[in-house]
Amino acid sequence: MAKLMPKRSLENVGLTVTGLCIALVALVVVTLIVMVAQQGLATFLQDGVDFWSFISGGNWIPEDGRFGALPLIVGSFSVTLLSTVFALPVALGSAIFVVEVAPGFGRRVFQPLVELLVGIPSVVYGVLGLSVVNAAMRAIFGEAAGTGAGILSGAIVLAVMILPTVTTLSIDALDAVPNEYREGSYALGCTRWQTVWHVVLKSALPSLMTAVILGMTRAFGETLAVQMVIGGVERSMPTGLLDPAATLTTALTSGLSNATTGSVQYHALWSLGLLLLAMSLVFIAVIHLIGKKGAKKRG
Q1: In this structure, what DSSP letter does residue 236 have?
Q2: Which of 198, 209, 200, 217 has its CA nearest to residue 91?
Q3: What phi, psi does 120 have (nearest 5°)?
Q4: DSSP string covering 118-181
Q5: How far apart are CA 55 and CA 96, in angstroms?
Q6: CA–CA separation, 59 vs 56, rounded Å?
Q7: Are 249 and 76 in contact (CB under 8 A)?
Q8: pLDDT below 50 — which residues of the chain?
């Protein structure tokens, strides 16, 4: 019979393996940040592009040496915020239905159906947006919508894409509220909806805000589906929700195929990637800040 490893040795092996896993993840993250920063900062340190002109410039025309990323930044934030506005009421209402109104049906039928949306590839959303949403924009707004491609179309498609994420996290947030809170509210004579509005939602607010931020992060980094429905116009600032536009991600993917390695255009595209990375880090920092404040409120 084989001799078993002593408990202390086994514990040391476990600590070593888990420590190596943590070190590997940290190394990958640091390497990624350093690589993107090195290439992205070359635009300003090596090629002499003014940082403020890059951030605030109103025209992105790399072939003419004009690297104004403001239209792309506006496009990214426009579709992200608008898609969140569209998705949040539906996600929150669905979460309330699943947790507070019909938990049996919601858990067995509705939630699995919502989670199925996560497995649909981005290109399918893009094709549906191209054939359905853009056509709807032309039918509703007529000539003002042009081809139908624009910020509004991109926001609608993104809203459907982030809906499963926000809904699932909102369900978990409401489900985590202790039943004692509900029982105490009912004991004071409150109705179900008074309890939901004044007790459950307020108790779950930090987790709900985290769900929203994660949904925004998902929307901010989406590329393929948005590229198919937003129009891909990078050269100038959009003036309305129906105008074709571009985002940081769509400009990055479409420009890399034409950029020569080491050129100013190549480094400028890496600078767009650096902006995306910085925004992702901001979103993560906000999530941690909300989590800490929520933990303090709960004691």
Answers
A1: S
A2: 209
A3: -75, 125
A4: GGS-HHHHHHHIIIIIHHHHHHHHGGGGTTS-SHHHHHHHHHHHHHHHHHHHHHHHHHTS-HHH
A5: 41
A6: 9
A7: yes
A8: 1-2
Q: What are the φ and ψ backbone dihedral angles of 146, each rounded to 5 degrees?
A: 60, -120
Q: Residue 178 and residue 190: Cα distance in Å, rounded?
A: 17
The two three-digit tokens of residue 174, written as one number:
């409401």
∠ CA 186-189-194, rounded to 5°? 70
Give strand ranges (E) for the chain: 60-61, 66-67
Phi/psi of residue 151, nearest 5 degrees = -65, -40
Q: Quote the distance between the C-alpha of residue 103 and its chain's center.
A: 28
Cα–Cα nearest to 152, from 236, 214, 83: 83
The CA distance from 228 to 233, in Å, is 12
Q: What is the DSSP string of 248-281?
A: HHHHHHHHHTTPPTTSHHHHHHHHHHHHHHHHHH
Task: Tell me the per-residue pLDDT of 57-100, one tens digit each, with 9 for 90 and over.
Answer: 888 988 888 899 999 999 999 999 999 999 999 999 999 999 98
Supply the pTM of this predicted model.
Answer: 0.87
> What pLDDT, on the 0 to 100 scale, is given for residue 3?
57
What pLDDT does 153 receive?
94
Do residues 156 and 80 make contact, with C-beta atoms less than 8 angstroms apart?
A: no
Whole-number average pLDDT of the chain: 88
CB 146 within 8 A of CB 71: no
| Sequence-ordered list of residues with C-beta below 8 angstroms from that of 107, at least 6 positions apart, any chain | 98
